[in-house]
Pyridinium-3,5-biscarboxylic acid mononucleotide synthase (Desulfonema magnum), 255 residues
Amino acid sequence: MDSKYLVSLLKQVKNGQIEPDEAMHELRHLPFEDLGYARIDTHRCARTGVPEVIYCEGKSIPQIQGIINRMSEHHSNILATRATWEVFEAIEKIGLECQYHEQARIMVANPRPVEQVGNIAVVSAGTSDIPVAEEAAVTAETLGNHVNRIYDVGVAGIHRLLNVCDDLFEANVSVVVAGMEGALASVVGGLVSCPVIGVPTSVGYGASFGGVAALLSMLNSCASGVSVVNIDNGFGAGYQASLINKIAVNKAPPE
């Protein structure tokens, strides 16, 4: 239940189009709706501007169907992360329109066009890091941000990164996705004046410890302005980048 819906409902009461009791009936699910297996935060969009995001891993198909079906009554562009083809097909079976981004493992239910503003650079060290980078990119795009993808520019061939510096300089925020030793976040942080969000990935051989090596490297970055999200958390980075980008856009002087 987003803020536009609430404002519309209050206006209808004011204009006598609906009775207060009927409005109360509509509002009965605030601030959450209990489905038994999930308590849907129907008020979240009014508070944060973004509907609740569904993390699919660990949930059964019927649970995901029930949550998305109920949320779609009030929201568009519902993000479902770590979604499989099975989840996508199950949502289609209940008659809901949805889009599936296979590399990102993200499904967008009840999709609607959204204006994309600003500039977020999503940078990956290697091709193996692209799935996590795509999770960040698709998240940011769904939330209404322009995303510039800059992939496979890791430090083993740093001339590839230096060749796209102009793209980096134009971004309001950079999301840097890297596994192995995770050095790319520090390098980008030393080049740009915008915030850098490091995303360590679990890509790498044994001593990378499933992304812990990259995580510690990014946390210990000597470059200023680098913050770090959890291992493989492309969604978290994309969401945070959206918040930063929107602030930058709103504070930009008119052209």
